[in-house]
Design a protein that fits this description.
By secondary structure, the protein is mostly beta strands. The protein is 3% helix and 32% strand.
Length: 293
């Protein structure tokens, strides 16, 4: 199946049950009697339009057309709205960068909306962006030194985080005993009591916290972007990068380390903007240690 200029192959329809691979333009058909097959092509031209989450869908992947009412993933220039009167919680996984949207508005609502960002290069991009009450941007933590880490990365011209919204990457950094700021002790039991360094060295106390020396601080204090290091038993805090000309921050941003025998180090929060206003809260600290008997 060869598309004309301005179109691309989407899939076959009809005799798909006897095809080697209905998702490929070149595929084989087992002939066991009369068969009818047709090809679906889609236009490469896109007219920007309003895009809505599919009604009744409680969880889905942003980059799956089946998650959207139009059947298509939001494209450049679209304006995306998740309205206030949503009837149920919505969980969205974002594992690749979005198109450059004209606007993204997730309105204040009684039902929560969570967008979970996976991948260091995954970003949410819109000229104008509003994150309303009961909306959370987050990322999974617990990754190792050998894995691509995750973060929340937003790119906009104007960004508003309304009161009751959150960017929550607490515990979203390196996993236990992982990250550039962790140095193991001589035994597993002693390592489990050691914290992780980041902007500063992990805390001193018992003698085995001091030998070998804790990990050195890392990252750029003037432009912090790195996830936090895990302690012996807990994740470090995640990384948040908000880039915009103007940010109004009335929500809550947390990149704290997770609690453990010793806590993971705090992550990073960077608001890279010309103007920042609002009365929200920002935290990227180490958690408290678990109490010991």
């Amino acid at each position: 199946a060869v598309p004309d200029e301005g179109y691309k192959f989407a899939n076959w329809s009809g005799a798909t049950a006897v095809m080697d691979d209905p998702g490929r333009a070149e595929t084989g058909i087992a002939i066991a009697g009369p068969q009818t097959a047709s090809t679906v092509f889609v236009s490469l031209h896109h007219d920007p339009c309003a895009v809505f989450w599919k009604e009744g869908l409680e969880s889905g992947n942003w980059n799956d057309g089946n998650s959207w009412a139009s059947g298509e993933v939001p494209a450049d220039g679209d304006w995306l709205v998740i309205p206030a009167d949503r009837a149920h919680p919505i969980d969205i996984v974002l594992d690749a960068k979005t198109a450059q949207l004209k606007s993204l508005v997730i309105e204040d609502g009684d039902q929560p909306v969570t967008i979970t960002c996976k991948g260091w290069l995954t970003s949410i991009s819109a000229t104008n962006m509003v994150i309303g009450r009961n909306v959370t941007l987050t990322c999974p933590g617990g990754f190792t030194n050998d894995e691509m880490s995750n973060r929340v990365w937003v790119v906009a011209s104007t960004l508003e985080l309304r009161e009751g919204s959150s960017v929550d990457v607490a515990g979203g950094g390196y996993g236990p005993a992982q990250g550039p700021g962790f140095v193991a002790a001589d035994t597993v039991a002693e390592s489990n009591e050691r914290g992780g360094s980041h902007a500063g060295r992990q805390g001193y106390g018992r003698s085995y916290w001091q030998t070998p020396a804790p990990g050195a601080p890392y990252g750029d204090p003037a432009y912090p972007t790195a996830p936090g290091t895990g302690s012996g038993t807990a994740n470090g805090g995640g990384a948040v990068l908000l880039q915009a000309d103007s940010i109004v921050m009335n929500g809550a941003i947390s990149a704290d380390g997770a609690q453990g025998n010793a806590p993971g180090s705090g992550g990073s929060v960077l608001l890279d903007a010309t103007t920042v206003a609002g009365h929200g809260t920002i935290s990227a600290s180490s958690a408290s240690s678990k109490p010991t008997d």
